[in-house]
Amino acid sequence: MTEIYTPKSIQEAISFLAAHPDARPLAGGATLIAMRNAGLIEASHFVSLSEIGELQGIAKTGEGIRIGAMTRHRETAECDLLTGSLAVVRQAAGMIANRPVRNMGTMGGAVSNADPAADYLPALACVDAVVTLAGPDGQRDVPVRTFVQDWYETALDEGEIVIAITLPAPRNELSLYRKVARVTGDYATASCAIAMDGDTIRVAIGACGPGPIRDTEAEETLRGHLANPEAVTAFAGQLAALADPIDDVRGSAEYRLALIPRLIHAGLRQMKLAEVA
Amino acid sequence: MQIEGEFNVTAPQALVWENIRDPEIMAGCIPGCESIEQIDATSFRSVVAIKVGPISARFNLVVEITEEIAPETIRSRTKGEEGTRASILTSQNVLRLADDGSGGTDVAYAVDVTMTGRLGKYGLGIIRKKADQLAGVFVENFRKRVVP
After folding, report:
1. Which CATH architecture has domain A1-49?
2. pLDDT in tens, B76-91
3. ipTM, 2 dp
4. Which of B1, B2, B50, B55 is the best mutation test for A, with the most CBs of A within 10 A?
C-alpha cells in the first residue's frame, strides 16, 4: 500500500521526505503512477506536491522567467512570456504526449524523471536554464546542462526535490523545437532544440544519450558560417561524436545518429523561412 | 541481449585464473553483489542488487559452471529471479583468458541475457547501457584486487 501525503509547503514536503526514506515525491503523476501500476517502483508514501502554492505558475523575475516545478505542460505550452529565444520551450511543452498528459504532467516532474527521450531537457539546455533544488540542506541552483549525470540519474540528492526552473529573459531571436517520433505524441526517436542569434546558433540534441547534448565550442566555431551547408554538417558531426544513443523500439543507435544532421539542417531551413515571412 | 567486452590485466594468466575462480574475490568485485555462497563444486548462489534511475531490483541468482578448461575458459549459466516482483533472468556466459605476450592477461567475456517480467518491459536499450557501465566498474575493482 502506498499512502498519499499532501504537504502545504516546500519545508513540510522536505521534512516528510527526510523522515520517510521510502517515500517518493509525486508531481503530476503522468509517469510515476503509470510506473507504479506497472510494478516498476515501490514507495511507502507519495508526497504529493500539488497543494504547495510556491511551486505553481510562471512569472517574470529579475533573473528571467521562473517556472514553478508544478506548472503543467499545458500551461507552459500556452504561456505568452515564452517568446523569441524561449519559444523553443513553449513548443517542446506542446509536443509532449497528448492532451490528458499535458494537463497532468509538470515541468518539475519531467525534469526530475530525466527520461532521455522526453522533450523538455533539450529545450531547457538550448536556453541555458537553471534548475533550483530544495532539500534538507537548503536550496541550490544547478545549470540544466549538468543536471543529468547518467541514464535516469540527476543531480538530485536523496530527499531533494526540484522547485523551479529559471530561464534567462527572452531575447529577440528565432528558436524552435523539432522531433522525430514514430507517431505524434510518442517519445522522441531523436529531437533538436535550436535557437539562432544573428550569425550563430545554439543547438541541443535529445534522445541520443543520457542527457541533452550541446557543444558550445562547436557553436562558436560555426559562428558566421550558418549559410555554408558543409560547415553545418561538420557541426552536426561534432554533436554526433558526443552522442551515446541506445537501440530500442523507437530506432537503432545508427538511425538516431543519422537523424542528428537532418534535424539541424531542417531546423535551420525552417528558421530561414520564418525570417523571410 | 548480447553483452560482450574485453579488458587487460597486468598480472599473469595463472594468477588471474586463480582470482576468477575464487567466489569471495568475485563477490567483492561485482558491483551490487551482496552475497555469494558455494552450493557444490560447480554451483554458486548469489544476491545482486541493481538500480536504474528510480527502479531498484534485487536478484537471487544461481550460477552453474558448465565447462571449465583451466586456465583459459569458463562457460556458465545463470538463472535468477527477483523476490516478490517477478522478473526472470537467464544468461549463458563465456569467459576466456589469454596470455597477452608481455606478462599480462587478456580477458574476454560474452553474455547472452534474457530478461522477462517487469524489468523486461523497461527497455533493453537502457539495461544494456547499464550493463556496460557495471562491467566497467567490475574491471576496475578486479584490476585493483589482482594487481595491488
Report:
1. 2-Layer Sandwich (3.30)
2. 999 999 876 678 999 9
3. 0.79
4. B55
